[in-house]
Amino acid sequence: MQWTLVIPLKPLTRAKSRLADTAGDGVRPELALAFALDTVAAALGCPAVRDVAVVTDDALAGRELAALGARIVPDDPRAGLNAALAHGATVVRAARPLSAVAALNADLPALRPGELTRVLDAAAEFPRAFLPDAAAVGTTLLAAGPGRDLRPAFGSGSRALHRASGAVELSPEAVDSVRQDVDTGEDLRAALALGVGPRTAAVAARLPGPARQSGSAGRHGAVPGQ
């Protein structure tokens, strides 16, 4: 099964506010953009992904993500994360009503195409499915097969909300890169330890020493063959 991924991205000036203690206001928007660029680049390299639609109103992010090959969908609802995801899925299915659609976080800088393929292949076995985040509280991916509504419930406690909605929880084994989203300095250090993409590595290299780990050398150097 081929999937269309819908990825939401806030305006960069408002993104990743919980990283304020790790990255100042001058660097934080750059980190948010780097996360999104590395996430989309990895997603587009996944054999199970047909295309990627990014829902954003940020002009700079839109230009750079479009240059990678993503479709940019304006956030017309401007009513938060779940409204943006529902809108993106609607836009995708206006052209291809039977598309398999998956919502994916924009802050997965360690994402590996092979691990994303395993998650999407597993999701294809169910009408709706989701993957919990590394903290086992939230969600990094929510998938809806052909003809199924996405029904996103991202935010605080989304793992429980998605499970309660009837979505099947996928096994988190051996797909750490798809689970490691970045909201805090600790999350960033965990992603760096996994090995991040080149854009995140470049920005992270400018952060104070405690914010970095040796994994910041880059995803492709850290994990041969990925």
Commentary on this structure:
The relative contact order is 0.17. Helix 1 (28-44) runs parallel beside helix 2 and helix 1 (28-44) runs antiparallel to helix 8. A hairpin with a 6-residue loop joins strand 5 and strand 6 (139-144). The protein has a single domain, classed as Spore Coat Polysaccharide Biosynthesis Protein SpsA, Chain A, CATH 3.90.550. A seven-stranded mixed beta sheet has the order 3-2-1-4-6-5-7, sandwiched between helices. The protein has 226 residues and is α/β, with parallel strands linked by helices. It is built from nine helices and seven strands; from the N terminus they run E-H-E-H-E-H-E-H-E-E-H-E-H-H-H-H. 38% of the residues lie in helices and 15% in strands. The two termini are 21 Å apart. The longest helix is centred in the first third of the chain and has 17 residues, at 28-44.
Mean residue pLDDT: 93
The description of the largest β-sheet is: 7 strands, mixed
Proportion of residues in extended strands: 15-25%
Number of E strands: 7
Distance between the termini: 21 Å
Q: Order of helices and strands, N to C? A: EHEHEHEHEEHEHHHH
Please indicate the count of domains: 1
Which CATH architecture would you pick?
Alpha-Beta Complex
Shape: globular
Number of helices: 9
Helix content: 25-40%
Look up the CATH topology.
Spore Coat Polysaccharide Biosynthesis Protein SpsA, Chain A
Q: Which structural class should the secondary elements be placed in?
A: alpha/beta
How do the strands line up in the largest sheet?
Answer: 3-2-1-4-6-5-7
Spans of at least 5 consecutive residues whose pLDDT stays below 50 are: 220-226
* Cα-based radius of gyration, to the nearest Å: 16 Å
